[in-house]
From TrEMBL:
It is found in: Cell membrane. The chain crosses the membrane at residues 21-41, 61-80, 92-111, 117-138, 150-174, 180-198, 219-239, 259-279, 286-304, 310-334, 346-367, 373-393. This is MFS transporter. It comes from Paenibacillus sp. BIHB 4019. Keywords: Cell membrane, Membrane, Transmembrane, Transmembrane helix, Transport. Gene3D superfamilies: MFS general substrate transporter like domains.
């Protein structure tokens, strides 16, 4: 074997999963990247008064920092994922993390609303690329039998950020200042970059000859049903999550919003752990069970609104069924798209962000017209639609087994 062949063999070995054990160091690095991503996206919502005072703007304008981030993700996830699909994976991941380091640092030090708005948009761009590649990255580290479990570990950062990171960041921001929180997130990104340079394996991008257009990926059997389920499921989730305070006011728990969100967050972490244990054997079943569980939770929120204990049970069930949703849907999209998983994931990210915006809009319309009592029944309708789509799409997007 000559020197060139030996080098090629070593590269191939470094890019091929060789054991049946999870590469915990690399998967937890992806989980931490997701944690930073979600925390960067959501933390301004808990610190709007402080940010408004710091930038000398109104709270409504400060709220646009959240909108700018979402727009950055929504507008660029698909085109940039497609454009970078042939890049090597580790350099692209490091570039995304450098984006969080840079743009969170700009946010921490900026005294200009315009500059901060641009930084937030660009952080959203980093987020779109990260979510577009993370599922495929995690799956390539392990053999087929562990792909779902690997994704579950890689997705742990999202529910932990929502359950613990956002409350802790908000608490810290109130006492130490919102700029300090963004500085901490920049420090975390820098440390994670160093960790990734040490522990993350590298993989080649997709060869240009194998790339398919966005339209062709969309027409792959199974991709569209998964995206339809994402829209319906996440619309239902975001209607309730965005307007949880008005609902709790109706049921007499408005003073317990923090406790309710803690119950939801802890249940979400439990949900993703459960999904991680079962997804490689029961992908289709877990999708159907999760959707059915959320439908039951929605109905309980409607019929049990006068009983706080029933509300707490429904919130916990909602959290358990939502915790593994990202892993289930990303796995289903990756299974359906095959070699074109990264492009399919970027479409999923776009659909997810459309559902976030749509949930806020539809929830506002329902609140102004039918009132908050309409929320549980709207959620039930949307989730039942998602359940029917997933049930019918058993041959491709939501298969009972791999193959």
């Amino acid at each position: 074997m000559n020197k060139h062949q030996l080098t090629s063999s070593r590269r191939a070995a470094a890019s091929t999963p060789a054991t049946d054990r999870l590469p915990w160091a690399a998967l937890l690095a992806l989980a931490m990247a997701g944690f930073i991503c979600i925390l960067t996206e959501t933390i301004p919502a808990g610190l709007l008064p402080q940010i408004a005072r710091g930038l000398q703007i109104s709270e409504s304008l400060a709220g646009q920092l959240v909108t700018a981030y979402a727009l950055g993700t929504l507008l660029t996830a698909i085109p940039l994922t497609a454009a970078t699909n042939n890049w090597r994976r580790r350099p692209l991941l490091l570039l995304c993390m450098f984006g969080f380091l840079l743009f969170n640092s700009v946010t921490a030090f900026s005294s200009s609303f315009g500059l901060t708005l641009i930084a937030r948009f660009m952080a959203g761009v980093s987020s779109g690329i990260l979510w577009g590649m993370s599922a495929g990255y995690a799956r390539r580290m392990v053999p087929d039998a562990l792909k779902g479990r690997a994704m579950a570990v890689a997705m742990l950062g999202s529910p932990i950020a929502l359950a613990l990171g956002v409350p802790a960041g908000t608490f810290l921001g109130v006492f130490a200042g919102w700029r300090f929180v963004f500085g901490i997130m920049s420090l975390l990104a820098m440390l994670l970059i160093l960790w990734m340079m040490w522990k993350m394996p590298d993989f080649a991008g997709q060869p240009s000859a194998k790339r398919r257009s966005l339209y062709n990926v969309m027409t792959i059997p199974g991709v569209r049903p998964v995206l339809a389920v994402v829209l319906a499921w996440m619309l239902a989730h975001n209607i309730l999550y965005t307007y949880i305070a008005p609902y709790l006011a109706m049921v007499g728990l408005v003073e317990r919003v923090d406790v309710v969100l803690l119950v939801f967050g802890v249940a979400s972490v439990a949900g993703i752990i459960l999904i991680g244990l079962l997804i490689d054997r029961m992908l289709r079943a877990m999708v159907l069970i999760s959707l059915a569980g959320f439908a039951v939770a929605s109905i309980l929120l409607g019929i049990g609104s006068s009983e706080p204990m029933i509300v707490y049970i429904a919130i916990a069930l909602w959290g358990v069924t939502f915790g593994g949703a990202a892993t289930l849907l990303q796995t289903a999209a990756a299974e359906a798209a095959g070699d074109h998983a990264d492009v399919a994931q970027s479409m999923l990210v776009t659909a997810w962000n459309l559902a976030i915006g749509g949930g806020g809009l539809i929830g506002a319309l329902l609140l102004e017209t039918l009132g908050v009592i309409s929320f549980p029944w709207t959620l039930s309708l949307l989730v039942i639609i998602a359940l029917l789509i997933a049930f019918v799409a058993k041959e491709h997007g939501f298969r009972s087994n791999r193959g």
